Amino acid sequence: MTGYTRRTRAVLLDLDGTLLDTAPDMAEALNILRREQRVGPLPYEQIRQFVSNGAAALVRLGFPDAQEAELEVLRMRYVDIYRANLAVHTRPFEGVAESLARLESAGIPWGVVTNKPAWLTEPLLEQLALRKRVRVVVSGDSLPERKPHPAPLLHAAAKLDVQPAECIYVGDAERDVLAARAAGMEVFVALFGYIPPADRPREWPANGWLDTPYALCELLDSIVTSSA
Questions:
Q1: Banded pLDDT at 52 (limits 50, 70, 90)
Q2: Phi, psi of 40 (to 5 degrees)
Q3: Which of 14, 21, 176, 221 is catalytic?
């Protein structure tokens, strides 16, 4: 992804699988839970594909034969394990934090819009020294609606005092694309994120596709260049 020249006044990012590589810690939490239940670990690559779908989906993956009531108990235990180990291995994808710093130097604010609940999102950003840098955070429980509803993205734009059409959004799920399009924002798919093999992300109605974190850095750097 190169040569982006559209005038952009703000950048919004999904969290898991776009800004942060959270899969190692989320996968480890699931395998800790499986060990507690006296079953063997699942391969990391199998778990990684489902991380963007949240705790409930991961627990269903880890315990496919469990009944609904048992799944809820397991989900609550999973969340406790994960919350205690939020940033053991989690880091921003390579180069992305540095590109965001260049946005900041150019006076272009960036924000996070995620379906992850605030009681996980906020401490995670704090532990990674990003909370004071990010200009707006909209979590999955910040509003009554979550992505794919456009309300979280529209709320973020309003908080930044920019028009939706002046924002771009980057995410790694179809709900990200649908939310951004409904909000009137350009949207790019982080193909390096946590996309299940059955999905067809190049068929999603996006404006562009980013194969690697480097491509995301190119996009952000192009925004800086076009604002000069």
A1: confident
A2: -75, 165
A3: 14
Long-range contacts of 66-70 (CB under 8 A, 24+ apart): none
Chain-centroid distance, C-alpha 137: 12
| Amino acid identity at 72 | E
Q: Reduce the DSSP state of residue 92 to 3 states and report it.
A: strand
- The model's pLDDT over 69-126, given as tens digits with 9 standing for 90+, comes to 999 999 999 999 999 999 999 999 999 999 999 999 999 999 999 999 999 999 999 9
Please give the structure tokens belonging to residue 145. Answer: 């609606």
Q: CA–CA separation, 66 vs 88, rounded Å?
A: 29
Q: How far is CA 164 from CA 88, 132, 148, 151, in A?
A: 35, 23, 16, 11
Catalytic annotation on 14? yes
Q: Measured between alpha carbons, how far is 16 from 171 in angstroms, rounded to an integer?
A: 9
